[in-house]
């Protein structure tokens, strides 16, 4: 029996469908990109599985995707001969959203269409984008290695539910049939379809085929003077590739257009927005690999979700091996997307093998350097774009010095802070800028960490610095105390918290103020003694200081004690 069942969509899928239909009307054609992208993924997955079981090809190893339009029935069909889906696969993959943090994502939608469509861009739309142009979608699929009578058909109008039933399907793979909405018939036009494929899917590594128009035979005829004009044989319609069908990263850099890199990003990252930056490199020598690394323009909504999948797509000799190989990037660069194609790893490499492997380590080292260099260059060449990057990912970069000791200096170059130089909360002062502005005789980088920007900016500890015109970095992010406990120097300059220890402004303290200090200490000796007596064990010491100009007193931490900020942080995690 066909065993027909009706299933309700997961709530989030229903929301996604609604949102998509209403917010993506100006960019409808992307449905084709998403479906072709899925077909290419399905081909990759089959090739990978066939590495250990070649019988899965079942005599059909030329993987491709075919697109055709049927004007009589108002349908477009996208067919692949990739891995296919079983009944269980289809119910999970086309009925739920598997991403971690999905519920949280949907709770953030505001109902404001412009804002929501931005968000959805980050989320990615995938298969469900079929419903932008179709009011009914039928998916017929037969998984590799499964008998013809075990295929499955999924059908839905994109409202609350979908049905599944068992069918016969003679060939392996997946057909997606879109029943176009009344006013979306423009997509039935072959030229239109072809131009969408070239625009978005040129870089897909399997052929995207369409039927050539049928050319009717021209029969023999007689010309005006009675001469015989020979017949011209017709040409039957045939499948022809309309894309380059070459893995983008294997091509020469000089031959690849920016738009191609951008479209490829959307395919590998399942992101909808443009990438901010990318680097494409062939590495030769003791380890050989190609890397294509992208920095997204927006932080994903689940950047801080520990279960979030991240990492690079891994290929070995152009064969897809796995998604989300997280071994190639340190945690503080977990937002980097893209792929690696190794010539040295074995084709049967597993996550376990990757874990403790010399090749992996060399590639990780190389890729980390690559990303740090690319970001440093961006910082030097395009301050605006770098600011966009920093606003999205700066907090994560600040995890770097604690995690990656070897690259401390390179990470230091990427850091940006607010400072007393411009006194705004915008974090746009680099350590290099700071050092350039250091006063004659100043040998330390001064900073203050507080609970908020306002508290940092108005800290009484800053008074003497302001008076002397010495710049101080103003830090108030949750992670800053952690960062500063690992970042002790940059470019051979020590960091010095202005709230710590005896403040030695070095050569900047002139003779005059040293004399003044002695004078003050004498004058207020009895006040200090009385304060010490009344405060007792609550303080270590009471000292006369010149660091204040307006406030009467402030609390200072001893050089090697935990700062008050760190104490708060430890308390907040229950220490
Ligand atoms: P994503 O591609 O980001 O995983 P999609 O919504 O595009 O999300 O697709 C959801 C899932 O449905 C895919 O991960 C895959 O498992 C399955 N799928 C979609 N299209 C195909 C296809 N043509 N062949 C096999 N599986 C598919
Ligand atoms: Mg997809």
TrEMBL record:
Amino-acid positions noted as binding ATP in the UniProt annotation, renumbered to this chain: 34, 38, 80, 85, 99-101, 122-127, 174, 351
GO molecular function, one term: ATP-dependent protein folding chaperone
Gene3D superfamilies, sorted: 3.30.230.80, 3.40.50.11260, Heat shock protein 90, C-terminal domain, Histidine kinase-like ATPase, C-terminal domain
Stretch list, region A: 1-351
Domain Histidine kinase/HSP90-like ATPase: start-end pairs: 27-184
Region span, Disordered: 217-237
Pfam families found in the cross-reference section: HATPase_c, HSP90
InterPro entries per record: HATPase_C_sf (IPR036890), HATPase_dom (IPR003594), Heat_shock_protein_90_CS (IPR019805), HSP90_C (IPR037196), Hsp90_fam (IPR001404), Hsp90_N (IPR020575), Ribosomal_Su5_D2-typ_SF (IPR020568)
Keywords, sorted A to Z: ATP-binding, Chaperone, Cytoplasm, Nucleotide-binding, Stress response
Subcellular location: Cytoplasm
Major site of localization recorded for this protein: cytoplasm
GO cellular component: cytoplasm
Subunit organization: Homodimer.
Reported function: Molecular chaperone. Has ATPase activity.
Similarity comment: family membership: Belongs to the heat shock protein 90 family.
Identification of the protein by name: Chaperone protein HtpG
């Amino acid at each position: 029996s066909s065993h027909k069942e009706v299933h309700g969509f997961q709530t989030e899928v229903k929301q996604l469908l609604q949102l998509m239909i209403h917010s993506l009307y100006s960019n409808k054609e992307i449905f084709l990109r998403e479906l072709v992208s899925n077909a290419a993924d399905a081909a990759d997955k089959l090739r990978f599985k066939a590495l250990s079981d070649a019988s899965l090809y079942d005599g059909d190893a030329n993987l491709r995707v075919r697109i055709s339009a049927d004007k009589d029935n108002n349908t477009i069909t996208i067919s692949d001969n990739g891995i296919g889906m079983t009944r269980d696969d289809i119910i999970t993959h086309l009925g739920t959203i598997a991403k971690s943090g999905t519920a949280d994502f949907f709770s953030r939608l505001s109902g404001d269409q412009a804002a929501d469509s931005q968000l959805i861009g980050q989320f990615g739309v995938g298969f469900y984008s079929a419903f932008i142009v179709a009011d009914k979608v039928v998916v017929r699929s037969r998984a590799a290695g499964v008998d013809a009578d075990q295929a499955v058909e999924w059908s839905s109008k994109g409202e609350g539910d979908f049905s599944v039933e068992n069918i016969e399907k003679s060939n392996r793979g997946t057909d997606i049939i879109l029943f176009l909405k009344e006013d979306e018939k423009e997509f039935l036009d072959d030229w239109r379809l072809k131009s969408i494929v070239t625009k978005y899917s040129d870089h897909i590594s399997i052929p995207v085929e369409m039927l050539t128009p049928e050319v009717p035979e021209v029969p023999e005829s007689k010309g005006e003077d009675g001469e015989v004009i020979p017949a011209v044989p017709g040409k039957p319609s045939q499948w022809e590739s309309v894309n380059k069908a070459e893995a983008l990263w294997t091509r020469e850099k000089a031959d690849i257009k920016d738009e191609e890199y951008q479209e490829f990003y959307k395919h590998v990252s399942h992101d909808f927005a443009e990438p901010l930056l990318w680097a494409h490199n062939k590495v030769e020598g003791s380890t050989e690999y190609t890397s294509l690394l992208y920095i997204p323009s927006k932080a994903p909504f689940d950047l801080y979700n520990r279960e979030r999948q991240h990492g690079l797509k891994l290929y070995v000799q152009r064969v897809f091996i796995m998604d989300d190989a997280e071994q190639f990037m340190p945690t503080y660069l977990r937002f980097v997307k893209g792929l690696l194609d190794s010539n040295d790893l074995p084709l049967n490499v597993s996550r376990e093998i990757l874990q403790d492997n010399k090749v992996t380590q060399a590639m990780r080292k190389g890729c980390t350097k690559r990303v740090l260099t690319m970001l440093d260059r961006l910082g030097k060449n395009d301050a605006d774009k770098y600011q966009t990057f920093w606003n999205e990912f700066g907090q994560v970069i600040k995890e770097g010095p604690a995690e990656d000791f070897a690259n401390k200096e390179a990470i230091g170059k990427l850091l940006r802070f607010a400072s007393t130089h411009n006194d705004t909360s915008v974090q746009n002062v680099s350590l290099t800028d700071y050092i350039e502005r250091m006063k004659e005789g100043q040998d330390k980088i001064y900073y203050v960490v507080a609970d908020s920007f306002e508290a940092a900016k108005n800290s009484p500890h800053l008074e003497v610095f302001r008076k002397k015109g010495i710049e101080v970095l103003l830090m108030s992010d949750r992670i800053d105390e952690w960062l500063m406990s690992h970042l002790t120097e940059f470019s051979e300059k020590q960091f010095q918290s202005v709230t710590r220890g005896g403040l030695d402004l070095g050569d900047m303290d002139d003779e005059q103020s040293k004399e003044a200090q002695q004078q003050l200490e004498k004058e207020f000796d009895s006040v200090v003694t009385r304060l010490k007596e009344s405060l007792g064990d609550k303080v270590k010491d009471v000292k006369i200081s010149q660091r204040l100009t307006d406030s009467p007193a402030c609390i200072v931490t001893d050089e090697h004690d935990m700062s008050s900020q760190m104490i708060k942080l430890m308390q907040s995690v229950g220490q």
